[in-house]
Specification:
This protein is of the alpha/beta class. The chain folds into 2 domains: about 5-250 and about 450-475, Aldehyde Dehydrogenase, Chain A, domain 1 (3-Layer(aba) Sandwich); about 255-440, Aldehyde Dehydrogenase, Chain A, domain 2 (3-Layer(aba) Sandwich), CATH 3.40.309.10. It has helices spanning about 40-60, 65-80, 80-90, 95-115, 155-165, 180-190, 205-215, 230-240, 265-275, 295-310, 330-345, 395-400, 415-425, 460-465; strands spanning about 5-10, 10-15, 20-25, 30-35, 125, 130-140, 145, 170-175, 200, 220-225, 245-250, 255-260, 290, 345-350, 365-370, 385-390, 405, 410-415, 430-435, 450, 455, 465-475. The strands form 6 sheets. It has a 7-stranded mixed beta sheet with strand order 14-15-16-13-12-18-19, with helices on both faces. The protein has a 6-stranded mixed beta sheet with strand order 9-8-7-10-11-21, sandwiched between helices. The N and C termini lie far apart (about 60 Å).
Protein backbone atom coordinates (compact mmCIF):
# COMPACT_ATOMS: atom_id res chain seq x y z
CA UNK A 1 0.00 0.00 0.00
CA UNK A 2 2.95 2.36 0.53
CA UNK A 3 5.14 2.54 -2.59
CA UNK A 4 8.90 2.83 -2.82
CA UNK A 5 8.59 6.26 -4.40
CA UNK A 6 11.46 8.26 -5.82
CA UNK A 7 12.28 11.91 -6.28
CA UNK A 8 10.92 13.19 -9.60
CA UNK A 9 13.00 15.57 -11.72
CA UNK A 10 12.35 16.06 -15.42
CA UNK A 11 9.77 13.29 -15.37
CA UNK A 12 12.31 10.72 -14.18
CA UNK A 13 11.97 8.95 -10.83
CA UNK A 14 15.18 8.73 -8.84
CA UNK A 15 15.93 6.03 -6.29
CA UNK A 16 18.94 7.83 -4.79
CA UNK A 17 19.47 11.30 -3.39
CA UNK A 18 22.56 13.35 -2.63
CA UNK A 19 21.50 13.83 1.03
CA UNK A 20 21.18 10.13 1.82
CA UNK A 21 17.92 8.48 2.79
CA UNK A 22 14.68 9.39 4.52
CA UNK A 23 12.74 6.99 6.74
CA UNK A 24 8.99 7.54 6.61
CA UNK A 25 7.13 6.13 9.61
CA UNK A 26 3.50 5.29 10.37
CA UNK A 27 2.42 7.70 13.13
CA UNK A 28 0.00 5.09 14.46
CA UNK A 29 2.50 2.24 14.87
CA UNK A 30 5.97 3.84 14.73
CA UNK A 31 6.81 1.29 12.01
CA UNK A 32 9.02 2.33 9.09
CA UNK A 33 6.89 2.48 5.95
CA UNK A 34 9.71 3.03 3.49
CA UNK A 35 13.28 4.22 3.14
CA UNK A 36 13.26 6.87 0.40
CA UNK A 37 15.96 8.90 -1.31
CA UNK A 38 16.59 12.29 0.30
CA UNK A 39 17.20 15.35 -1.84
CA UNK A 40 20.01 17.80 -1.23
CA UNK A 41 21.34 20.94 -2.86
CA UNK A 42 22.26 19.23 -6.13
CA UNK A 43 18.68 18.06 -6.64
CA UNK A 44 17.40 21.56 -5.87
CA UNK A 45 19.69 22.98 -8.55
CA UNK A 46 18.61 20.38 -11.10
CA UNK A 47 14.93 20.80 -10.29
CA UNK A 48 15.11 24.59 -10.68
CA UNK A 49 16.96 24.38 -13.99
CA UNK A 50 14.41 21.84 -15.16
CA UNK A 51 11.56 24.11 -14.03
CA UNK A 52 12.94 26.91 -16.18
CA UNK A 53 12.80 24.65 -19.24
CA UNK A 54 9.39 23.42 -18.20
CA UNK A 55 8.07 26.95 -17.87
CA UNK A 56 9.08 27.76 -21.45
CA UNK A 57 7.35 24.59 -22.67
CA UNK A 58 4.19 24.67 -20.53
CA UNK A 59 3.46 28.39 -20.82
CA UNK A 60 3.49 27.98 -24.62
CA UNK A 61 0.46 25.67 -24.38
CA UNK A 62 -2.84 27.44 -24.90
CA UNK A 63 -5.08 27.73 -21.82
CA UNK A 64 -7.50 25.39 -23.59
CA UNK A 65 -4.88 22.68 -24.05
CA UNK A 66 -3.54 23.12 -20.52
CA UNK A 67 -7.09 22.66 -19.23
CA UNK A 68 -7.54 19.36 -21.07
CA UNK A 69 -4.39 17.89 -19.53
CA UNK A 70 -5.23 19.04 -16.01
CA UNK A 71 -8.79 17.70 -16.25
CA UNK A 72 -7.43 14.38 -17.46
CA UNK A 73 -5.11 14.30 -14.43
CA UNK A 74 -8.06 14.98 -12.11
CA UNK A 75 -9.87 11.99 -13.62
CA UNK A 76 -6.80 9.81 -13.06
CA UNK A 77 -6.66 10.95 -9.45
CA UNK A 78 -10.27 9.94 -8.87
CA UNK A 79 -9.65 6.54 -10.44
CA UNK A 80 -6.79 5.96 -7.99
CA UNK A 81 -8.51 7.21 -4.88
CA UNK A 82 -8.25 4.03 -2.88
CA UNK A 83 -4.50 3.51 -3.29
CA UNK A 84 -3.69 7.18 -2.75
CA UNK A 85 -5.98 7.51 0.27
CA UNK A 86 -4.48 4.45 1.97
CA UNK A 87 -1.02 5.87 1.38
CA UNK A 88 -2.14 9.20 2.81
CA UNK A 89 -3.54 7.53 5.93
CA UNK A 90 -0.39 5.50 6.47
CA UNK A 91 1.99 8.46 6.33
CA UNK A 92 -0.24 11.12 7.91
CA UNK A 93 -2.51 9.17 10.29
CA UNK A 94 -5.99 10.51 9.53
CA UNK A 95 -8.89 8.05 9.18
CA UNK A 96 -9.29 6.50 5.75
CA UNK A 97 -12.68 8.12 5.18
CA UNK A 98 -11.12 11.56 5.72
CA UNK A 99 -8.18 10.66 3.47
CA UNK A 100 -10.58 9.70 0.67
CA UNK A 101 -12.40 13.01 1.04
CA UNK A 102 -9.13 14.94 0.99
CA UNK A 103 -7.85 13.15 -2.11
CA UNK A 104 -11.18 13.71 -3.88
CA UNK A 105 -11.12 17.35 -2.83
CA UNK A 106 -7.64 17.73 -4.30
CA UNK A 107 -8.93 16.34 -7.59
CA UNK A 108 -11.79 18.85 -7.45
CA UNK A 109 -9.27 21.65 -6.92
CA UNK A 110 -7.31 20.56 -9.98
CA UNK A 111 -10.44 20.33 -12.11
CA UNK A 112 -11.75 23.73 -10.97
CA UNK A 113 -8.48 25.51 -11.74
CA UNK A 114 -8.24 23.65 -15.05
CA UNK A 115 -11.47 25.37 -16.02
CA UNK A 116 -10.66 28.71 -14.42
CA UNK A 117 -7.31 28.78 -16.24
CA UNK A 118 -9.25 29.25 -19.46
CA UNK A 119 -10.59 32.51 -18.02
CA UNK A 120 -7.44 34.41 -17.08
CA UNK A 121 -8.95 37.53 -18.55
CA UNK A 122 -7.11 40.77 -19.14
CA UNK A 123 -8.86 44.04 -19.94
CA UNK A 124 -8.98 46.90 -22.41
CA UNK A 125 -8.55 50.46 -21.14
CA UNK A 126 -9.89 53.39 -23.20
CA UNK A 127 -6.99 55.40 -24.61
CA UNK A 128 -6.61 59.15 -24.20
CA UNK A 129 -6.32 59.64 -27.94
CA UNK A 130 -8.28 57.84 -30.63
CA UNK A 131 -5.18 56.25 -32.16
CA UNK A 132 -4.08 54.56 -28.90
CA UNK A 133 -4.89 51.07 -27.68
CA UNK A 134 -4.28 50.02 -24.08
CA UNK A 135 -4.46 46.34 -23.09
CA UNK A 136 -3.61 44.53 -19.85
CA UNK A 137 -2.58 40.88 -20.22
CA UNK A 138 -2.19 38.33 -17.43
CA UNK A 139 1.11 36.47 -17.80
CA UNK A 140 2.25 33.44 -15.76
CA UNK A 141 4.76 34.56 -13.16
CA UNK A 142 7.34 31.82 -13.86
CA UNK A 143 8.66 28.74 -12.03
CA UNK A 144 7.07 28.27 -8.61
CA UNK A 145 8.37 26.71 -5.40
CA UNK A 146 5.46 25.01 -3.62
CA UNK A 147 6.15 24.35 0.08
CA UNK A 148 3.38 22.33 1.73
CA UNK A 149 2.94 20.89 5.26
CA UNK A 150 2.03 17.45 6.53
CA UNK A 151 -1.49 17.99 7.87
CA UNK A 152 -3.24 17.97 4.46
CA UNK A 153 -0.61 16.56 2.09
CA UNK A 154 -2.96 16.28 -0.90
CA UNK A 155 -5.22 19.32 -0.50
CA UNK A 156 -2.46 21.62 0.80
CA UNK A 157 -0.09 20.84 -2.06
CA UNK A 158 -2.83 20.97 -4.68
CA UNK A 159 -3.80 24.47 -3.50
CA UNK A 160 -0.44 25.48 -4.99
CA UNK A 161 0.07 23.08 -7.89
CA UNK A 162 -3.37 23.51 -9.46
CA UNK A 163 -3.45 27.33 -9.86
CA UNK A 164 0.24 27.45 -10.78
CA UNK A 165 -0.13 24.93 -13.61
CA UNK A 166 -3.45 26.43 -14.71
CA UNK A 167 -1.78 29.83 -15.07
CA UNK A 168 1.05 28.33 -17.15
CA UNK A 169 3.76 28.15 -14.47
CA UNK A 170 6.06 25.22 -13.80
CA UNK A 171 6.37 23.85 -10.26
CA UNK A 172 9.02 22.48 -7.94
CA UNK A 173 6.98 20.79 -5.20
CA UNK A 174 8.55 20.22 -1.79
CA UNK A 175 6.25 18.23 0.49
CA UNK A 176 6.92 17.63 4.16
CA UNK A 177 9.43 14.91 5.05
CA UNK A 178 6.65 13.26 7.07
CA UNK A 179 4.25 12.93 4.11
CA UNK A 180 6.22 12.85 0.84
CA UNK A 181 4.49 10.15 -1.17
CA UNK A 182 1.06 11.79 -1.43
CA UNK A 183 2.64 14.54 -3.57
CA UNK A 184 4.46 11.86 -5.55
CA UNK A 185 1.06 10.29 -6.37
CA UNK A 186 -0.22 13.68 -7.60
CA UNK A 187 2.80 14.20 -9.85
CA UNK A 188 2.48 10.72 -11.34
CA UNK A 189 -1.13 11.44 -12.33
CA UNK A 190 -0.16 14.78 -13.89
CA UNK A 191 2.69 13.28 -15.90
CA UNK A 192 0.57 10.36 -17.11
CA UNK A 193 -2.11 12.84 -18.19
CA UNK A 194 0.35 14.56 -20.53
CA UNK A 195 1.98 17.31 -18.48
CA UNK A 196 5.41 18.04 -19.98
CA UNK A 197 8.00 16.20 -17.84
CA UNK A 198 9.93 19.39 -17.09
CA UNK A 199 6.84 21.21 -15.79
CA UNK A 200 6.82 19.51 -12.38
CA UNK A 201 9.47 18.16 -10.03
CA UNK A 202 8.99 16.63 -6.59
CA UNK A 203 11.80 16.72 -4.05
CA UNK A 204 11.85 16.11 -0.31
CA UNK A 205 14.45 16.31 2.41
CA UNK A 206 15.55 18.76 5.09
CA UNK A 207 12.89 21.48 5.03
CA UNK A 208 15.21 24.32 6.02
CA UNK A 209 17.95 23.32 3.57
CA UNK A 210 15.69 22.77 0.57
CA UNK A 211 13.41 25.76 1.20
CA UNK A 212 16.36 28.09 1.63
CA UNK A 213 17.94 26.90 -1.61
CA UNK A 214 14.69 27.08 -3.57
CA UNK A 215 13.98 30.66 -2.51
CA UNK A 216 17.51 31.75 -3.36
CA UNK A 217 17.43 30.04 -6.75
CA UNK A 218 17.37 32.61 -9.58
CA UNK A 219 15.01 30.40 -11.60
CA UNK A 220 12.24 30.49 -8.99
CA UNK A 221 9.99 33.54 -9.35
CA UNK A 222 7.28 32.80 -6.78
CA UNK A 223 7.12 30.99 -3.44
CA UNK A 224 3.90 29.58 -2.02
CA UNK A 225 4.01 28.41 1.60
CA UNK A 226 1.58 26.87 4.03
CA UNK A 227 3.10 26.71 7.49
CA UNK A 228 3.46 28.28 10.90
CA UNK A 229 3.76 32.01 11.48
CA UNK A 230 7.32 31.47 12.73
CA UNK A 231 8.36 29.74 9.51
CA UNK A 232 6.42 32.30 7.49
CA UNK A 233 8.48 35.15 8.91
CA UNK A 234 11.70 33.38 7.90
CA UNK A 235 10.48 32.60 4.39
CA UNK A 236 8.99 36.08 3.87
CA UNK A 237 12.26 37.71 4.92
CA UNK A 238 14.31 35.57 2.57
CA UNK A 239 11.85 35.95 -0.31
CA UNK A 240 11.91 39.71 0.18
CA UNK A 241 15.69 39.75 0.06
CA UNK A 242 15.59 37.93 -3.29
CA UNK A 243 12.50 39.84 -4.56
CA UNK A 244 10.28 36.79 -4.99
CA UNK A 245 6.49 36.98 -5.06
CA UNK A 246 4.92 35.08 -2.17
CA UNK A 247 1.60 33.65 -1.06
CA UNK A 248 1.49 32.58 2.58
CA UNK A 249 -1.18 30.75 4.54
CA UNK A 250 0.16 30.74 8.07
CA UNK A 251 -0.99 29.88 11.58
CA UNK A 252 -4.38 30.53 13.09
CA UNK A 253 -6.16 30.17 16.42
CA UNK A 254 -9.78 30.10 15.36
CA UNK A 255 -12.32 31.58 17.79
CA UNK A 256 -15.89 30.27 17.88
CA UNK A 257 -18.38 32.80 19.23
CA UNK A 258 -21.37 30.99 20.72
CA UNK A 259 -24.31 33.29 21.36
CA UNK A 260 -26.97 32.56 23.96
CA UNK A 261 -29.47 31.91 21.14
CA UNK A 262 -27.31 29.33 19.34
CA UNK A 263 -28.97 26.01 18.47
CA UNK A 264 -27.10 23.63 20.79
CA UNK A 265 -28.61 20.51 19.22
CA UNK A 266 -26.83 21.35 15.98
CA UNK A 267 -23.74 23.08 17.35
CA UNK A 268 -22.42 20.43 19.75
CA UNK A 269 -22.17 17.51 17.29
CA UNK A 270 -20.70 19.81 14.67
CA UNK A 271 -18.18 21.21 17.16
CA UNK A 272 -16.98 17.71 18.10
CA UNK A 273 -16.80 16.57 14.48
CA UNK A 274 -14.82 19.55 13.24
CA UNK A 275 -12.63 20.06 16.31
CA UNK A 276 -11.35 16.49 16.31
CA UNK A 277 -11.21 16.10 12.52
CA UNK A 278 -7.65 15.12 11.57
CA UNK A 279 -6.87 15.11 15.31
CA UNK A 280 -7.27 18.89 15.35
CA UNK A 281 -4.34 19.34 12.96
CA UNK A 282 -6.21 21.81 10.79
CA UNK A 283 -5.24 25.46 10.35
CA UNK A 284 -8.91 26.48 10.52
CA UNK A 285 -9.81 24.06 13.31
CA UNK A 286 -12.25 25.60 15.84
CA UNK A 287 -10.14 26.12 18.94
CA UNK A 288 -11.29 28.90 21.31
CA UNK A 289 -14.99 28.43 22.06
CA UNK A 290 -16.19 31.73 23.52
CA UNK A 291 -19.56 30.88 25.02
CA UNK A 292 -22.10 33.27 26.50
CA UNK A 293 -22.82 32.62 30.15
CA UNK A 294 -26.45 31.54 29.67
CA UNK A 295 -25.49 28.44 27.67
CA UNK A 296 -21.94 27.87 28.95
CA UNK A 297 -22.57 24.92 31.26
CA UNK A 298 -24.75 23.11 28.73
CA UNK A 299 -22.13 23.56 26.04
CA UNK A 300 -19.26 22.30 28.21
CA UNK A 301 -21.23 19.23 29.26
CA UNK A 302 -22.40 18.47 25.71
CA UNK A 303 -19.01 18.89 24.06
CA UNK A 304 -17.27 16.86 26.78
CA UNK A 305 -19.68 13.97 26.32
CA UNK A 306 -19.27 14.13 22.54
CA UNK A 307 -15.47 14.14 22.87
CA UNK A 308 -15.56 11.06 25.08
CA UNK A 309 -17.49 9.19 22.37
CA UNK A 310 -14.89 9.84 19.62
CA UNK A 311 -13.28 6.52 18.64
CA UNK A 312 -9.50 6.85 18.44
CA UNK A 313 -7.43 4.31 16.53
CA UNK A 314 -5.41 3.47 13.44
CA UNK A 315 -6.79 5.29 10.42
CA UNK A 316 -7.24 2.05 8.48
CA UNK A 317 -9.41 0.45 11.18
CA UNK A 318 -13.16 0.44 10.63
CA UNK A 319 -15.03 3.00 12.70
CA UNK A 320 -12.01 5.14 13.58
CA UNK A 321 -13.06 8.78 13.91
CA UNK A 322 -9.69 10.17 14.96
CA UNK A 323 -6.20 8.89 14.26
CA UNK A 324 -2.85 9.79 15.83
CA UNK A 325 -1.11 13.10 15.58
CA UNK A 326 1.30 13.11 12.68
CA UNK A 327 4.46 13.62 14.76
CA UNK A 328 5.61 12.72 18.25
CA UNK A 329 6.62 16.33 18.83
CA UNK A 330 3.08 17.50 18.16
CA UNK A 331 1.70 15.03 20.71
CA UNK A 332 4.20 16.30 23.26
CA UNK A 333 3.13 19.90 22.58
CA UNK A 334 -0.51 19.02 23.33
CA UNK A 335 0.44 17.17 26.53
CA UNK A 336 2.43 20.21 27.70
CA UNK A 337 -0.50 22.52 27.00
CA UNK A 338 -2.86 20.33 29.03
CA UNK A 339 -0.41 20.27 31.94
CA UNK A 340 -0.11 24.06 31.77
CA UNK A 341 -3.91 24.45 31.78
CA UNK A 342 -4.28 22.20 34.83
CA UNK A 343 -1.59 24.11 36.70
CA UNK A 344 -3.32 27.41 35.99
CA UNK A 345 -6.76 26.43 37.27
CA UNK A 346 -8.59 25.34 34.13
CA UNK A 347 -10.71 22.18 34.22
CA UNK A 348 -10.09 19.16 31.99
CA UNK A 349 -13.62 17.85 31.38
CA UNK A 350 -12.76 15.22 28.75
CA UNK A 351 -9.58 13.39 27.78
CA UNK A 352 -6.40 15.13 28.82
CA UNK A 353 -3.81 12.40 28.33
CA UNK A 354 -1.72 10.73 25.68
CA UNK A 355 -2.89 7.21 24.76
CA UNK A 356 -0.53 4.23 24.91
CA UNK A 357 3.19 3.90 24.30
CA UNK A 358 3.03 3.17 20.59
CA UNK A 359 2.20 5.83 18.01
CA UNK A 360 1.30 9.47 18.54
CA UNK A 361 -2.19 9.10 20.00
CA UNK A 362 -3.77 11.66 22.31
CA UNK A 363 -7.28 11.62 23.71
CA UNK A 364 -9.79 14.18 22.42
CA UNK A 365 -9.60 16.83 25.13
CA UNK A 366 -11.90 19.58 26.39
CA UNK A 367 -10.59 22.28 28.72
CA UNK A 368 -13.24 24.38 30.45
CA UNK A 369 -12.77 27.72 32.22
CA UNK A 370 -10.03 28.63 29.79
CA UNK A 371 -8.52 32.09 30.24
CA UNK A 372 -5.91 34.22 28.42
CA UNK A 373 -3.07 33.17 30.73
CA UNK A 374 -3.09 29.61 29.39
CA UNK A 375 -0.33 28.62 26.98
CA UNK A 376 -2.93 27.03 24.69
CA UNK A 377 -4.92 30.26 24.56
CA UNK A 378 -1.93 32.03 23.04
CA UNK A 379 -0.09 29.40 21.00
CA UNK A 380 -2.02 27.49 18.35
CA UNK A 381 -2.58 23.98 19.79
CA UNK A 382 -2.81 22.21 16.41
CA UNK A 383 -4.15 19.11 18.05
CA UNK A 384 -7.28 17.54 19.62
CA UNK A 385 -7.67 20.28 22.21
CA UNK A 386 -10.88 22.32 22.60
CA UNK A 387 -10.69 25.40 24.83
CA UNK A 388 -13.94 26.70 26.29
CA UNK A 389 -14.13 30.16 27.87
CA UNK A 390 -17.12 31.82 29.52
CA UNK A 391 -18.04 35.32 28.26
CA UNK A 392 -20.68 37.73 29.48
CA UNK A 393 -21.59 39.27 26.14
CA UNK A 394 -20.94 39.23 22.41
CA UNK A 395 -18.75 42.31 22.84
CA UNK A 396 -16.60 40.41 25.33
CA UNK A 397 -16.40 37.47 22.92
CA UNK A 398 -15.32 39.75 20.08
CA UNK A 399 -12.64 41.35 22.26
CA UNK A 400 -11.18 37.90 23.01
CA UNK A 401 -11.55 36.76 19.39
CA UNK A 402 -9.56 39.79 18.21
CA UNK A 403 -6.97 39.66 21.01
CA UNK A 404 -4.68 37.37 19.07
CA UNK A 405 -2.32 38.72 16.38
CA UNK A 406 -3.56 36.06 13.94
CA UNK A 407 -6.69 36.14 11.81
CA UNK A 408 -7.23 33.10 9.61
CA UNK A 409 -10.65 31.58 10.32
CA UNK A 410 -13.37 32.60 12.75
CA UNK A 411 -16.76 31.08 13.45
CA UNK A 412 -20.00 32.23 15.01
CA UNK A 413 -23.17 30.43 16.03
CA UNK A 414 -26.31 32.52 16.46
CA UNK A 415 -29.89 32.58 15.23
CA UNK A 416 -30.03 36.38 15.48
CA UNK A 417 -29.34 38.26 12.23
CA UNK A 418 -28.27 41.41 14.10
CA UNK A 419 -25.69 39.46 16.12
CA UNK A 420 -24.36 37.77 12.96
CA UNK A 421 -24.02 41.13 11.22
CA UNK A 422 -22.20 42.66 14.19
CA UNK A 423 -19.72 39.78 14.29
CA UNK A 424 -19.16 40.04 10.54
CA UNK A 425 -18.37 43.75 10.84
CA UNK A 426 -16.08 43.41 13.83
CA UNK A 427 -14.14 40.15 13.76
CA UNK A 428 -10.63 40.25 12.29
CA UNK A 429 -10.27 37.24 10.04
CA UNK A 430 -9.76 36.26 6.44
CA UNK A 431 -12.69 33.82 6.64
CA UNK A 432 -15.84 33.65 8.76
CA UNK A 433 -18.22 30.71 9.06
CA UNK A 434 -21.66 31.47 10.49
CA UNK A 435 -23.54 28.45 11.89
CA UNK A 436 -21.14 25.99 10.24
CA UNK A 437 -17.43 25.09 10.14
CA UNK A 438 -16.79 24.25 6.46
CA UNK A 439 -14.70 26.91 4.70
CA UNK A 440 -12.38 25.35 2.11
CA UNK A 441 -13.84 25.12 -1.40
CA UNK A 442 -11.99 25.31 -4.73
CA UNK A 443 -14.04 28.29 -5.86
CA UNK A 444 -13.59 30.44 -2.74
CA UNK A 445 -10.55 32.39 -1.47
CA UNK A 446 -8.69 30.77 1.42
CA UNK A 447 -6.35 32.98 3.42
CA UNK A 448 -5.88 35.15 6.47
CA UNK A 449 -5.00 38.59 7.75
CA UNK A 450 -2.49 39.91 10.29
CA UNK A 451 0.08 37.23 11.23
CA UNK A 452 -1.93 34.54 9.45
CA UNK A 453 -0.27 35.45 6.18
CA UNK A 454 -1.20 37.25 3.03
CA UNK A 455 -2.70 36.34 -0.31
CA UNK A 456 -5.34 33.71 -0.93
CA UNK A 457 -5.39 30.18 -2.27
CA UNK A 458 -8.57 29.14 -4.02
CA UNK A 459 -11.03 31.10 -6.10
CA UNK A 460 -10.11 33.61 -8.79
CA UNK A 461 -7.79 35.19 -6.22
CA UNK A 462 -5.77 31.99 -6.09
CA UNK A 463 -5.25 31.98 -9.86
CA UNK A 464 -4.35 35.66 -10.08
CA UNK A 465 -1.61 35.07 -7.49
CA UNK A 466 0.35 33.10 -10.12
CA UNK A 467 0.11 35.79 -12.80
CA UNK A 468 1.52 39.25 -13.34
CA UNK A 469 -0.15 42.06 -15.29
CA UNK A 470 1.50 43.26 -18.49
CA UNK A 471 0.46 46.56 -20.06
CA UNK A 472 0.52 46.72 -23.84
CA UNK A 473 0.26 50.33 -25.03
CA UNK A 474 0.10 50.73 -28.79
CA UNK A 475 -0.50 53.49 -31.30
CA UNK A 476 -2.60 52.12 -34.16
Amino acid sequence: MYPEAGLIIGGVSRSTGSAGVLEVTDPATDEVLAVLPKAGLSEVSEACETAMKGFAEWSAFSPYDRSKILRRAADLMRARTEDAARCLTLEQGKPLAQARLEWGGAADLLEWFAEEGRRTYGRIIPGRVTESELRVLRKPVGPVAALAPWNFPAWGMMQKIAPALAAGCSVVAKPSEATPVTTWHIAVCLLEAGLPPNAISVIWGSSSTLSDALIKSPEIRKVSLTGSTRVGRIVASLAGEYLKKVTMELGGHAPVIVARDADMSKLIPLAAQWKFRNAGQVCVSPTRFLVEDAVYDDFVEGLSQAAARVKVGHGLEDGTAMGPLCTRNQRNVISAMVADARAKGARVTAGGDAIGNVGNFHAPTVIADAHPDLLAMNDEPFGPLALVARVGSIDEALAEANRMPVGLASFAFTTNAHTAAKITRTVKAGMLGINHFSLGLPETPFGGVLDSGFGSEGGIEGLEAYTTPMLVSAMV
